[in-house]
Design a protein that fits this description.
Layout (H helix, E strand, L loop, with lengths): L6 H15 L15 H15 L5 H13 L4 H16 L3 H14 L6 H13 L10 H16 L6 H29 L2 H14 L6 H15 L2 H15 L3 H12 L11 H11 L4
Amino acid sequence: MARGKTAAQLVGGLVLVAALTACGGGTKEPPLDSFTAEEIYKRGEYELEVGNPRKPETAIRYFSEVERLYPYSEWAKRALIMQAFSQHKAKQYEEARGTAQRFIDTYPGDEDAAYAKYLLALSYYDQIDEVGRDQGLTFQALQALRAVIEEYPESEYARSAMLKFDLAFDHLAAKEMEIGRYYLKQGHYTAAINRFRVVVEDFQTTTHTPEALHRLVESYLALGLTDEAQTAGAILGHNFQGSQFYADSFALLKGRGLAPEAKGDNWLSKVYRQVIRGAWL
């Protein structure tokens, strides 16, 4: 949101800084209510971009004061979106969400509403923790990113939201895979299968699908359920024949005198039929 400034604007910012600090020998800032909304706003911009860019908290103060002192001005509207931006930059994610939401509620038809919605989504997305942590924020990020995509499809933020949506979606699949691998390693094959099934059925567009199918081959073979193991191998071969996971599954099946092919009537055979029809990729 904060865009580059021209040389003239930067000079103006320097002059403004001098004005805002020129009191009592230049050691004490005069009361902000003695300046216009524009002057306070530009000081916030200056602090954010030139004066103290690594500490956005200073800019946040100025932007919030614009809104407090001049609540119905055009500068207050600008300051509100910049306050949300600065809070996000300062990693004050909860505050950034609240400020962005206030902008959306107050100015729903404004041209910056799309950006406010995007900032709100980012405040969730940038908090997504390591795979082993709780994934509640990931779900919230997905919902918020979807809102940007659906409500502002023609905006400059929609494409970025789509990319981040895919990454967050992949993150959820990674969580399922991590838990599934743990159960598999512990010999809890049914529990592992339940996790890998979620990836195959609900996260099939992610990068984790080939491994999930391979782990299903391993798990079903361990339980002696050869029809399911062969069918998982067949799906893996149909969609990911060039992957190492398929090579490993093929070797496992061959070692049991089996081949990757659809067998029986189970949930995987239904998936296989969808694959053949092209309805599942």
